Amino acid sequence: MRYEELREKLDQVLADAGPLRRTVLETLGRLRRRIGDYRQAAARLRTLLRASAQLQTTEDLSERLHLICRVIIDIRTYRRAVITLLDDEMGVLGYGHAGLTEDEALALENAKPLSPVERRKIFDERFRVGASYFIPFPESEKLFGRDVGIAGSLPEGEYVNWHPRDLLFVPLRGPRGRLVGTLSVDDPFDGRRPSRDSLKVLELFANMAAGLIAADRLQAELASTSRYLQNLIANSADIIVATDSHGRIVLFNHAAEEILGYAAAEVLGRHAGELYAKPEDRDHIKRVLREQGSIADFQTNARARSGEEIPILLSANVLYDSDGRFIGTEGISKDLREYLLLEARLIVAEKQKTLAEAAVGVTHEVNNPLESIISACSLAERSLSSKPRDLDLVREKLGIALREARRISGITARFTELAHGTGYRVTEVDGEVAMVDFTGDEERAYAAGEVCVLPRRYRVLVADDEPTIRLLLAEYLTKEGFAVETAVDGDEVVRKATQGPPWDVVVTDIMMPKKTGYEVYSEIRERCPGTAVILMTGFGYDPTHSLLKARGDGLKVVLFKPFEPRVVRDKILEVLRDK
């Protein structure tokens, strides 16, 4: 029996029933409205189900967002809807909308979005209705200090208790409650503020939409990660090889092709054990992986396509699926050829450094006593130059001492060259033992020199912390007609040079206590510009850079020990002539 027939019969029965009739009619009215609500809800659910099926087949995220908003309008809950996609920091990723005019859509795109701090205000518990958040006007304006969203499209009088500036947000949450966006709706069809019951269908659909959005985002993240990993593997400078559970190669990257000489197509499907040069290393790696699940920084050799054994440093891991089943292995290997070459060069450099340090020490320790020998012999030879012939034997022996001292001097010079990696050769002794040849290509020539006649008694200050060198050099120069004094350290030579009568020349070693040769040179040059300075050194190189810095400031003469005293005399005369 139809509802209209039932109503007609009841009207006849209750025609004279009075109050009872009114009660029954009111009950029937409520029943009719409830049936209408159920029918509307059923229609909305059918629309949602159809939309759900359509959403599942739509791959474009932007299209999905607009479709979700369109469905909300189609089920006649609200006339306008906006979805805002958010990142993990509540920054806006994009929008979807339906029911907006072109101008409103453009205004939405160009509007200043809510900041993360402002957006968090939406989810204040005092605004909560069901799983949604309703912010009534004027609270909405006070909360944000400006208009937010799109104003209602109908005059205020068209609504029951909804205001055009009211705000309603439904959070879109993915797995584990992760917020992926918000759904903002406006212009309710019934003109009323939301209630828990009125929001149930909307929240149900929003929950389904959030799941789709989260899945879509996850899919995009997985695709991005996959592309990143593929790019990382393809462009890695290291060998990357993966195998299946049977040890067959399933991944062979570009670096593996370049280093080992195989094309990936040649080795895919072959057993990875074929790439090892040493079977015992292959078996060791398999055993460690089986027992420990990984191996790190294991040095072995890989066999290239050409047959060359290439040293590599291997790290590998066992791979399992989500159920814990063994599915294969992956390994990363570094080509060690360049590293081993650099290591060999470093060892050579370290040996060279040690040799250089030894050369400096030997040169310094040998040259100073050599200077003493040469100076003493020169003085003795000079004093004997006018004696009778019966002293020829003494002169001969002194000549031998001088010659051998010069020979040692040449050896230290070549030892310094050896330490710096230049100017040496290797010879064989008895055809077996190799040794460095310290002999020179030709002997140094030392002229005996002549006694000079000075126009006046020039004042010369000699400074050296080696007593023998200092005293012998002073004695020689005194016999040559110079007025000589000595100093034992940097402070004393500066003090003597800058006090009393001016000095013509200061001859000083570069390595003395209290001041370096450069410090001595600089102070004398500044305070006594008329005094010439000559620097001496027994080092094969300039450890304090005194010579380099002094030459940059105008130093003209440097003497390298060992030298004959006459060389000092000649250099003194040279700088005096320049003055």
UniProtKB/TrEMBL annotation:
SUPFAM superfamilies: CheY-like, GAF domain-like, Homodimeric domain of signal transducing histidine kinase, PYP-like sensor domain (PAS domain). GO terms for biological process: regulation of DNA-templated transcription. PROSITE patterns: PAC (PS50113), PAS (PS50112), RESPONSE_REGULATORY (PS50110). Residues 225-291 form the PAS domain. Residues 459-576 form the Response regulatory domain. GO terms for molecular function: phosphorelay sensor kinase activity. The modification 4-aspartylphosphate is found at residue 509. Residues 296-348 form the PAC domain. It holds the Pfam family PAS. It comes from the Bacteria. InterPro entries: Bact_response_regulator (IPR050595), CheY-like_superfamily (IPR011006), GAF (IPR003018), GAF-like_dom_sf (IPR029016), HisK_dim/P_dom (IPR003661), HisK_dim/P_sf (IPR036097), PAS (IPR000014), PAS-assoc_C (IPR000700). Keywords: Kinase, Phosphoprotein, Transferase. This is Response regulator. It comes from Candidatus Coatesbacteria bacterium RBG_13_66_14.
